[in-house]
Write a structure and sequence with these properties.
The structure holds three protein chains of three kinds. By secondary structure, chain A is mainly α. Chain A has helices at about 5-10, 10-30, 35-55, 70-100, 105-120, 125-145, 150-180, 185-195, 200-220, 225-235, 235-260, 265-290, 295-315, 320-345, 360-365, 365-380, 385-400, 405-430, 445-460, 465-475; strands at about 60-65, 70, 345-350, 350. Chain A is built from 20 helices and four strands. In chain A, strand 1 (about 60-65) and strand 2 form a beta hairpin. In chain A, helix 5 (about 105-120) runs antiparallel to helix 6 (about 125-145), helix 9 (about 200-220) packs parallel to helix 12 (about 265-290) and helix 13 (about 295-315) runs antiparallel to helix 14. By secondary structure, chain C is mainly α. Classes of the chains: A mainly alpha, B mainly alpha, C mainly alpha.
C-alpha cells in the first residue's frame, strides 16, 4: 500500500479534518472570544479545500484499499457542498454574534460535519458510507442544540438526534443485510457481483430497502421527513441555513452513488422505491407548505419538495437523470442560500422575526431585499427563465426520456401547486400594507451573498454552460462507456 | 476409566494443586501484610505496633482472623441482600483470580496466556464493582458516597494506567507477561521509563484505594466509606481482597518495571538466588512503599485527586506514549 | 473437546439468561449488573473461539469502564419501573403487530438465505492466522493497515462526540474559588508572614 498516494488522493478531506482539529486547538487556547477569528479561518479552510479539490489530479482513483473513491461525480458534488458550507458560514457569523451564541466550537463542528459530507460523497464501501454519515450527522445534532438555554433549540437537537439515531439504525441494519447476503462491503466488488449476474436474493432487497430508508431520512424525503419542519424551526436560523444546503447535497450525492454505483445493475429493484419517495416528497412538500405561517417551516417543506424533484432524476437512472440531479442540486444550492440570506435579514427592533406576515410590504420598506426574495421565489416556483425552471426542466426531461411519464406529470402538477405558496410570499411583499421595517444595515457579507446568488439565479439562462458541463462530466462517472 | 483418569482427573488435580500453591502462600502473605503494615507504620511513627500476641506479636493476624470469623454477620434491614453479600465475595475472588497469570519464575504461571497483561488490567478494572455494589446495596448514605467516589476514582486512574502499560508494551512487542519480564534482561524498564514507573505506582495506589487516595474509605469524613455496614466475615473478605489487591498491584509493578524474577545484575552471587525469591523481594519492596506512603502523606482532597488523574497524568502519559513510539521508530528499536 | 463444549454451553446459557434478565429485572441496578454478567460471559465465548484479545478488550472497555459509568448513572437516578410501564398495555397490540411483521419478514429472508461462497470461506477463517502471529498482531494489521481510513474516521467521530458533550453541558460557574497549584507553590514565606520584633510589654 502506498500511503503517500492515498494521502494525495484524499488530500482535500485530510486537509479539512486537520484544519478543523487545529482550529479546535486554537479556539481552546484563545478562549471564548475567538469565535470570529475561528469562523474566518474556517471559511478560509473551506476555500483552500475547494482549491485542493479543483487542483487535484485525481479522477477515478481509489485510496485506502478501495475504501475511498474519487471520480468526476464526487468532485462536482464536493464542490457544491464546499460552496454551500462556505456561503452559509459566511452568513452565520453576524447572526451568531447578535444572538449571543458566538462560540468557537460552532465553526469547528460545522467543519467536521463538512468532512463527514465529503467522506460520504467519496465512500466506496458500506462501512465508509456509515462512518461518513455518522460524522456528518453527529456534528449536526450538536449544532442544532447549540443554544442549549433555549427550549426550541434543545428540542430541535433532541428530536434530530433521536430520529437520526433511529435512521442510522435502519441504515446499519440494511448494510448488515447487504453484507450478509453478498459477503462483501466494497462497492466495486458489489458492482462486479451484480454485473456478472449475481443472484439477487430477497434478503439483499430487504437490505436495500432499509438502506434507502436510512438515506431518505438523511435527505428528509417523505415518509421520513417528520423531523424536518421541527428541526428547521427550532434550530437557530443560521444553522437552519446550513442544514438546508450542504447536508442535503451530500445526502443526495450519497444516494446517487450507492444506487448508481454498486446497485447500478439493480435498477428494477430500487426504481419503484425511489419513484414512490419522489412522488410522496413532491406531494407533501407542495401541500403541507400551503398551511405554514412560519417562513422556516415553509422552507422545510420546500426543501422536502425539492428533494422529491431531485429524486425524480435519480429515479430515471440514466446518465441524463444523474446530470439533471447535478444541475438541480447546483441551482438548489444558490436558491436556498439566497433565501436564507433574506431570512437572516428579517430582524425588527433587534429581534429575529420569522412569520411570513412580517414580510408585509417589504417592497416599500426595503425594495432590494424584496427584489432578491422575489427572484428566489419565482425561481423556486419554476418560472422561466429563472434557474429553478431549468433545474426542473432537466429533471422532468430525464424522467420522460426513461418512460416515467406519470412521475413527470405529477412533478409538474405539484410544481404548480407549490407555485401558490411561493407566489403568496411575493404577493405579501408587494401588495400588502407595510408592517414594521427591517433593521438596517444588513451587513456587507449579506449584501454580497444576496447579490451573487440572485445574479446567478437570474442570469443562469445566459450562461448555463459551466454548471451544465460539469454536471455532465459528473454524470459520466457512472457510465464509463456512455455516449 | 483409564482415559477419564489421565484425560480429565489428572489435569484437574494438577490445576487444583497449582491453585493451592498460589492461593495458600498468598493468603499467608495477606495476613502478614496486615501485620507488616502495623509494624512499619508503628516504626515510622515511633510506636511499637502489635507485640502482645505471640513472639513480636507474630500471631496477631491469626487472632484478628479468628475474631472476625466468630463475629455475627449483620445484614442491614434495608440492604439488598444478594448484592450486599455478593460484593465482598466478588472483591475477594477477583483479587485471587488475577494471580492465575502472574509468573513468579520463568514458566511458573498457572496460565501463561498471550494477553496476560490485558487479563491483569481487565481483572483489576473489575475491582470497582465490589466497591460499587457494596456501596449501593448497603442502602445507606456513607457507603453510597464512598462507592461513587471510588467508581470515579478507579475509572479515572485506569486510563493513565492503560497508557503506562502501552508504553511498556511498545518496548516489549508482546502482551505476554513472561515476554515482558524477559525483555528486561539488559535493563529494567524502571530506568528508561522512570516517569512511567512513578505514575504507574501512584496509579496503583489510587486503584487499590490506598492512602493518600483512600477517599472511598475516608474514615474521618465517610466513617469508613463503602464498607461501613459490613461486619464479621463479609468485612474480612473486603479486607483480604484489598490487601490481596495490593500484593497483586505490587506484582504487576514488579513484572512491568522491576524485571520480575530476574536478578538486578546478571553476575555470580546474585544469579545463585532463585527467581521466586527475587520476585518476592521486589514485591515486598513495592509493598513497603505502599505502607511508607500511607504513613507519610496526608489524604488528597477529591478535586485534587481528579485533577491529578485527568489533567496531569493523562496528558503526560499520552505524550510519553507518543515519545516512546517516536524514539523506538527513530532509532529502529522496535521489537520484532 | 468435551470441556470446551461444556464451557461453551455454560457461557452461552448464562449470556442468554442474563440478557433476558436485563429486560426482565424490576430493579434497574440489577438490570445493569446482569448486563455486566452478559458482557463477561460473552468475553468467555470469545476466549473459546480463540479471540483472546477481543475478549480482554471487551472486559476492559465495556465491563471495566462503560458499564461502571452506566451503573453510576442508574444508581443515582430514581427510575420508577412501574411509571415507565404505565401505558404499556395500551401500546402492546401495536408493538406485537410490528414485532410479528418483522419476525415474518426475517423468517422469509432467512428462508431465502443463500450464502455466497465467499461468505462461507470467511466463516472458516480462524481468528489467529496461525504460526507466530498472535491474534493481537493480526487484528492490528487489519485495523491500522487495511482499514486505517475507517479507524481515523472513527477517531473523528469520537472527537466530535466529545466536543458535543462539552459544548452542550459544560458551564463555567462564576465566583468559584479554584485551587491554583502554581500560585500555591510560588508562594514564599516573605509574601505571607511578616516577622516583627515585639518589645516585651509593648505589644504590636
Amino acid at each position: 500500500m502506498n500511503i503517500g498516494n492515498d494521502i494525495l488522493t484524499a488530500l482535500p478531506e485530510i486537509f479539512l479534518a486537520c484544519s478543523a482539529i487545529a482550529l479546535l486547538m486554537l479556539g481552546v487556547f484563545r478562549g471564548e472570544g475567538s469565535s470570529r477569528l475561528i469562523m474566518t479561518l474556517s471559511v478560509t479552510a473551506l476555500i483552500v479545500t475547494l482549491g485542493l479539490l479543483l487542483m487535484g489530479p485525481t479522477r477515478n482513483t481509489s485510496a485506502f484499499n478501495d475504501l475511498f473513491a474519487n471520480d468526476g461525480f464526487g468532485d462536482f458534488m464536493k464542490m457544491l457542498v464546499l460552496i454551500g458550507a462556505a456561503l452559509t458560514m459566511v452568513m452565520a457569523q453576524r447572526y451568531i454574534e447578535r444572538e449571543q451564541m458566538a462560540r468557537f466550537e460552532l465553526p469547528v463542528l460545522l467543519l467536521f460535519s463538512t468532512v463527514g459530507m465529503l467522506m460520504m460523497i467519496s465512500a466506496n464501501d458500506l462501512i465508509a458510507l456509515y462512518m461518513g454519515v455518522e460524522l456528518q450527522s453527529l456534528a449536526l445534532y450538536v449544532v442544532a442544540a447549540i443554544r442549549r438555554d433555549t427550549l426550541r433549540s434543545s428540542e430541535a437537537g433532541l428530536k434530530y438526534f433521536v430520529l437520526g439515531s433511529l435512521s442510522s439504525g435502519m441504515l446499519l441494519y440494511g448494510l448488515s443485510m447487504i453484507y450478509g447476503f453478498t459477503g462483501t462491503t466494497n462497492f466495486t466488488t458489489l458492482a462486479e457481483i451484480f454485473a456478472n449476474g449475481g443472484e439477487v436474493s430477497l434478503g439483499l432487497t430487504v437490505g436495500l430497502v432499509f438502506l434507502s430508508a436510512g438515506l431518505a431520512f438523511k435527505i428528509s424525503a417523505v415518509p421520513f421527513h417528520m423531523w424536518t419542519p421541527d428541526v428547521y424551526e427550532g434550530a437557530p436560523t443560521a444553522i437552519t441555513a446550513f442544514f438546508a444546503v450542504a447536508p442535503k447535497i451530500a445526502g443526495l450525492a450519497l444516494f446517487v452513488r450507492v444506487l448508481m454505483g454498486p446497485f447500478g445493475e439493480l435498477v428494477d429493484q430500487w426504481q419503484q422505491i425511489i419513484v414512490f419517495i419522489a412522488v410522496a416528497s413532491m406531494l407533501v412538500g407542495a401541500l403541507a407548505a400551503i398551511a405554514q405561517n412560519n417562513i422556516k417551516r415553509l422552507m422545510a417543506y420546500s426543501s422536502i419538495g425539492n428533494m422529491g424533484y431531485a429524486l425524480v432524476g435519480l429515479a430515471a437512472g440514466t446518465q441524463e437523470g444523474i446530470r439533471a440531479v447535478g444541475v438541480y442540486m447546483a441551482i438548489y444550492l444558490f436558491m436556498n442560500v439566497g433565501t436564507f440570506a433574506v431570512i437572516l435579514c428579517m430582524r425588527v427592533n433587534d429581534r429575529m422575526v420569522e412569520r411570513i406576515d412580517d414580510l408585509k410590504g417589504l417592497s416599500r420598506t426595503n425594495p432590494l431585499i424584496a427584489l432578491a426574495l422575489a427572484i428566489f421565489m419565482f425561481s423556486m416556483a419554476g418560472i422561466p427563465p429563472l434557474a429553478g425552471f431549468f433545474g426542473k426542466l432537466y429533471v422532468f426531461l430525464a424522467a420522460v426520456e426513461s418512460g416515467l411519464y406519470i412521475l413527470a406529470v405529477i412533478g409538474v402538477l405539484t410544481s404548480v401547486i407549490s407555485a401558490f405558496y411561493y407566489l403568496r410570499i411575493i404577493k405579501v411583499m408587494y401588495f400588502d400594507e407595510p408592517s414594521e421595517a427591517f433593521d438596517q444595515p444588513i451587513g456587507r457579507e449579506m449584501a454580497v451573498v444576496l447579490t451573487a446568488t440572485s445574479v446567478i439565479v437570474l442570469l443562469f439562462f445566459i450562461m448555463p454552460s459551466p454548471i451544465l458541463e460539469s454536471a455532465s462530466a459528473a454524470a459520466e462517472a457512472f457510465f464509463p462507456a456512455g455516449p | 476409566m483409564e482415559e477419564f483418569l489421565t484425560g480429565y482427573a489428572l489435569p484437574v488435580g494438577i490445576i487444583l494443586a497449582q491453585i493451592l500453591a498460589i492461593v495458600v502462600p498468598l493468603l499467608v502473605a495477606v495476613a502478614y501484610l496486615t501485620y507488616a503494615e502495623r509494624k512499619v507504620i508503628g516504626a515510622i511513627q515511633l510506636r511499637q505496633g502489635p507485640n502482645v500476641v505471640g513472639p513480636f506479636g507474630l500471631l496477631q493476624p491469626l487472632a484478628d482472623g479468628a475474631k472476625l470469623f466468630f463475629k455475627e454477620t449483620i445484614l442491614p434491614s434495608g440492604a439488598n441482600r444478594v448484592v450486599f453479600l455478593l460484593a465482598p465475595v466478588l472483591t475477594f475472588s477477583l483479587a485471587m483470580v488475577a494471580w492465575a497469570v502472574i509468573p513468579v519464575n520463568e514458566g511458573w504461571a498457572i496460565a501463561d496466556i498471550n494477553v496476560g497483561i490485558l487479563f491483569l488490567f481487565a481483572i483489576s478494572s473489575l475491582g470497582v464493582y465490589g466497591v460499587i455494589m457494596a456501596g449501593w446495596a448497603s442502602n445507606s448514605k456513607y457507603p453510597f458516597l464512598g462507592a461513587l467516589r471510588s467508581a470515579a476514582q478507579m475509572v479515572s486512574y485506569e486510563v493513565s494506567m492503560g497508557f503506562v502499560i502501552i508504553t511498556v508494551l511498545l518496548c516489549v512487542g508482546s502482551l505476554n507477561l513472561t515476554d515482558i519480564v524477559l525483555a528486561q534482561e539488559t535493563v529494567w524498564f524502571a530506568i528508561p521509563l522512570l516517569p512511567m514507573f512513578v505514575i504507574f505506582f501512584i496509579s496503583t495506589l489510587a486503584e487499590t484505594n490506598r492512602a493518600p487516595f483512600d477517599l472511598p474509605e475516608g474514615e474521618s469524613e465517610l466513617v469508613a466509606g463503602y464498607f461501613v455496614e459490613y461486619s464479621a466475615m463479609s468485612f474480612a473478605l473486603f479486607f483480604l481482597g484489598e490487601y490481596a489487591n495490593m500484593i497483586l498491584m505490587s506484582a504487576m509493578t514488579t513484572i512491568l518495571f522491576l524485571g520480575g524474577w530476574l536478578p538486578p545484575l546478571d553476575i555470580a552471587p546474585l544469579t545463585w538466588i532463585p527467581g521466586p525469591i527475587w520476585f518476592a523481594l521486589k514485591v515486598a519492596l513495592v509493598l513497603f512503599c505502599f505502607l511508607w506512603v500511607r504513613a507519610t502523606f496526608p489524604r488528597y482532597r477529591y478535586d485534587q485527586l481528579m485533577r491529578l488523574g485527568w489533567k496531569v497524568f493523562l496528558p503526560f502519559t499520552l505524550i510519553w506514549v507518543v515519545l516512546t513510539a517516536g524514539v523506538l521508530v527513530a532509532f529502529d528499536w522496535v521489537p520484532k | 473437546m468435551v470441556v470446551q463444549a461444556l464451557a461453551f454451553y455454560l457461557f452461552a446459557a448464562v449470556v442468554v439468561a442474563s440478557a433476558m434478565m436485563v429486560i426482565a429485572a424490576r430493579n434497574p441496578v440489577h438490570s445493569v449488573l446482569f448486563l455486566i454478567l452478559a458482557f463477561f460471559n460473552s468475553a468467555g465465548l470469545f476466549v473459546l473461539m480463540g479471540a483472546e484479545f477481543l475478549a480482554m478488550i471487551l472486559v476492559v472497555v465495556y465491563v471495566g469502564a462503560v458499564a461502571v459509568l452506566f451503573l453510576f448513572v442508574v444508581m443515582m437516578l430514581d427510575v420508577d419501573v412501574t411509571q415507565i410501564k404505565h401505558g404499556f398495555l395500551q401500546y402492546l397490540p401495536v408493538g406485537v403487530l410490528i414485532g410479528l411483521i418483522l419476525l415474518i419478514e426475517l423468517a422469509m429472508v432467512a428462508g431465502a438465505w443463500v450464502a455466497v461462497p465467499e461468505a462461507q470461506s470467511v466463516a472458516q477463517i480462524p481468528f489467529s492466522p496461525g504460526g507466530d502471529v498472535t491474534n493481537t498482531q493480526a487484528l492490528g494489521a487489519v485495523l491500522y493497515d487495511r482499514y486505517v481510513y475507517l479507524f481515523q474516521a472513527a477517531g473523528l467521530i469520537l472527537l466530535v462526540a466529545m466536543i458535543g458533550a462539552i459544548v452542550l453541558t459544560l458551564r463555567t460557574r462564576e465566583g468559584v474559588r479554584k485551587q491554583s497549584i502554581s500560585d500555591q507553590i510560588s508562594r514564599r514565606t516573605e509574601d505571607s508572614v511578616e516577622v516583627k520584633d515585639v518589645p516585651s510589654g509593648g505589644g504590636v
